[in-house]
Amino acid sequence: MSEQTSKHTHVLVIEDQHLMRLALIHELQAALPASIVHGAANVTIALDLLESHQFDLVVIDPGMPGYDPKSQDDRLDVVQVILDLSPDAIHIVVTGSDTDEEWEHCQKLGVVGYLAKNNIRPGALVDVLQEVAERGYSVRLSNETTAPPEFYHSGLTPREQEILGWMRQRPSGISRKDIYEQLGERFDIDAASAEKYYKRARAKLLKTGLLPKGL
Amino acid sequence: MSEQTSKHTHVLVIEDQHLMRLALIHELQAALPASIVHGAANVTIALDLLESHQFDLVVIDPGMPGYDPKSQDDRLDVVQVILDLSPDAIHIVVTGSDTDEEWEHCQKLGVVGYLAKNNIRPGALVDVLQEVAERGYSVRLSNETTAPPEFYHSGLTPREQEILGWMRQRPSGISRKDIYEQLGERFDIDAASAEKYYKRARAKLLKTGLLPKGL
DNA sequence: CAAAATAGGGACAGGGTTGTCCCTATTTTT
DNA sequence: AAAAATAGGGACAACCCTGTCCCTATTTTG
After folding, report:
1. What are the respective helix, strand and coil percentages of chain B, to the nearest 5?
2. Whole-angstrom Cα distance, residue B100 to residue A91?
3. Which GO terms describe its biological process (chains A, B) (predicted)?
4. What local confidence, expressed as pLDDT, does residue B208 receive?
5. pLDDT by residue (tens digit) across A92-123?
6. Rounded to an integer, what distance in angstroms lies between the CA atom of residue B61 and that of residue B95?
7. E-strand stretches of B50-199
8. Å from A106 (CA) to D8 (C1')?
């Protein structure tokens, strides 16, 4: 048994794809300011952690090696075992190959969140957690989005990247100034600062000779 | 046609899972200091970009929506189409469900890298690119690793996280001092600095009352 | 026991990012 | 033509992270 002394949220992420696991962990840390997040790359490690720690939230990708990813039974077995070992936690399933039936099965087991990997955008986990808190569950099945192309330039700061990303999605008919204000509100900064970042990003791109069309 | 004026490496990442795409982009930016990376969440966007830009490196996940992920033909079709549109680029396929045959098929089409998602660790892409440069190809099929559990605490800086991660993997028989020296060499910093980071990380964890066993 | 390793700190400079404020041309709208 | 929006800058303080150097107890190892 583990000490649950701290006020931190204890989270466990079970996912075999290293980059995806890290990304999920980052998302969760951003969503839960005071958090301790454990990562497990396979079921064995996960079971060890589940036995020695108590978690408030467990994120599971059932498509793990050692279990046939195409076998519905195997996938659900993984989920079942983990649920048995953490009965008090909130469980969210994340998968690359989602189906409606699997969600229903998971729900019967006690899972409250079911998310398709291609429908998890940066920052989306906050919404999911809130939805779970409010409605008791949250489902986001696979969804072919019409996301605009993205553009990343080494030499831009994260803020500049972010602001630029938003500006590139500016709908026609909306002035840049409006975007600045939206951004200011969203990031809780001055609209003038947002403007500044955009301009600096633009200047950097111009200097290197390549800025995407649409300015 | 596009201007290839700059000295930057032009990269395209085609991957429908948003978090994974971002992670790959970050990895590539770290691996290629002067780079411009474009991201496409689906084949349509990818084709648009391929027609308007010229790329040096294209990373493809063939498991895209709109194409049956279980259909070998569909997957290879995606790869084929992209290769046709960027004949001069280096092509690397990244997939969550890798098979030996698929690699062979891809290779015939002109792909030089074939990586299983669960075998891409942070920093691994540098090695892959170097291997491609040296041997002409690089393959990393699915591999159930015995990775140790990971531990992330909000409040630790990236450096502290990183150093802590390494220290937690310390084999018995190796002194911490040895690890400090290894870390110093690896990150090109003073061993004393590595020691400092570890101690500060430890202090933070103690203060919040939770440090993983193994100190 | 003596030496090495470890725990637990403090001080400090440098660098980059962030965020705010202010400035002047030029272009686009109204 | 007047007003608003945009491009393209500069200056500046605050903050955090990084990296280096130095210090003293305590514990472990040889």
Report:
1. 50, 15, 35
2. 34
3. phosphorelay signal transduction system
4. 81
5. 999 998 999 999 999 999 999 999 999 999 99
6. 5
7. 57-60, 90-95, 113-116, 138-140, 150-153
8. 56
User: Residue A34 is encoded by which pair of tokens?
Assistant: 């005071």
Q: Is the CB of A189 under 7 A from strand C?
A: yes
SS3 B55: coil
Q: What is the mean pLDDT of residues A48-73?
A: 83
pTM of the model: 0.92
Say yes or no for a CB contact (<8 Å) between B19 and A122.
yes
Q: pLDDT by residue (tens digit) across B100-115?
A: 999 999 999 999 999 9
Name residues whose C-beta falls within 8 Å of residue A149's C-beta, 6 or more positions apart in sequence. B38, B39, B40, B45, B48, B49
Phi, psi of A37 (to 5 degrees): -115, 130
Q: Judge contact between A27 and A3, C-beta under 8 A.
A: no
Cα–Cα distance for residue pair A190/B211, rounded to 1 Å: 39
**Protein CA A24 to sugar C1' C16 (Å):** 27
Q: Which of B91, B170, B73, B161 is nearest to B132 (CA)?
A: B91
